[in-house]
Design brief:
mainly alpha; single chain; 88 residues; amino-acid transport
């Protein structure tokens, strides 16, 4: 099984575009995750007990659920709703 390295220069702009999209999605994920984390932190410090209770339930759910289960649920929901990235 031989790999033809001659196709790399032909598709180089697509590789660069994919790299830029990956960096953008990663940066957006970090920003949204940090923002959500700060909001949950502030809610947990709140004196209103129902808000604290809901924040603790939210945290307990996501801390107690393995990432692979969350990823599979996300994938199943995207396939069911036909929202996959491959369907363009």
């Amino acid at each position: 099984m031989d790999f033809d390295f001659g196709v790399i220069p032909q598709y180089w702009p697509l590789f660069i575009n994919g790299l830029l999209v990956t960096i953008q999605v990663s940066a957006l994920g970090v920003l949204l995750g940090t923002g959500l984390g700060i909001v949950i932190l502030l809610i947990r410090q709140c004196s209103v007990w129902p808000a604290r209770w809901l924040a603790n339930i939210y945290l307990s759910f996501f801390r107690g659920t393995p990432v692979i289960v969350l990823a599979l649920c996300h994938f199943a929901a995207s396939v069911q709703n036909d929202l996959t990235a491959f369907n363009q």
